[in-house]
Amino acid sequence: MKNRHFLFVLVLALSLSGCAGTPTARPTKPAEKVAVIDDNQIVAGKRIGKVSIGMPTSQLLDVMGEPTKEYTNSNGSASSYEYGQLFLGVDHRDRSVASVSTTDSDYKTSSGLGVGSSELRVRAVMGQPLCFARDKYAKDMYFLLYDGIIFNFRGEGISSIGVGDYDPHSYWSGTAKCH
C-alpha cells in the first residue's frame, strides 16, 4: 500500500505545472483525440495500454471511465488519477494526459520488460540510463530514467514503470533528483 501511495504522489509530482521534472511544457490549446490501442503494451514516451500521452481528458473519460482515486495539486494545474494499477498525470493547461505509470506486471515493453524485471535485465535491454537517482528517504527505492520511460525499483526488481516526456536535466520525483 505504501508503494501505491508513493506512485500516486510520484505521478502527481511528474505532472506539476512549473516544477522541475515535469514533462516539457506543451501549448495550452486543447489536445486532439488520439488512437486507442487496447493491449498491454508499454511504449516509451507514448502509452501504456489504452492510455496515451497527449490523450484529451474527454477521451480519457470515455475510454477509462471515472477514476478510483484522484488528487489535484495546490494550484489546480495538474491532477493524478488512479485506475486500479494505472496512475495518470493530467496537465489541465491543455487538458491532456502528461504521464502514465503502472504497477501491473501484465503490462510489458516490446522487449518483455515489466514490473518484476531485474535491474540487470533493464540495463541489458536499455543500455546506460540518462539518469539514476536514489530516493532520499527510502534507501531501497531508486529509478532509472531513459528517453520517454522510467523504471522505479523498490527492493528486488521493477516496482513500477512510467512513460512521459521527461527531461533528465531537471527531473525531480519529489524525493529523488537527477544530477
Distance from N terminus to C terminus (CA atoms, Å) equals: 29 Å
**Which CATH class applies here?**
Mainly Beta
Q: Can you summarize the main beta sheet?
A: 8 strands, antiparallel
Q: How many separate helices?
A: 3
- CATH third-level topology: protein yfey like fold
Structural class: alpha+beta
Write down the oligomeric state: single chain
User: How much of the sequence is in beta strands?
Assistant: 25-35%
Rg calc: 15 Å
Key terms:
179 residues; protein yfey like fold; eight-stranded antiparallel β-sheet; three-stranded antiparallel β-sheet; 29% strand; globular
Characterise the protein shown here.
- This protein has a single domain, classed as protein yfey like fold.
- The chain is an alpha+beta fold and 179 residues long.
- It is 17% helix and 29% strand.
- Strands 4-5-6-7-11-10-9-8 form an eight-stranded antiparallel β-sheet, sandwiched between helices. The chain has a three-stranded antiparallel β-sheet with strand order 1-2-3.
- The longest helix has 14 residues, at 2-15.
- Strand 8 (131-134) and strand 9 (141-146) form a beta hairpin.
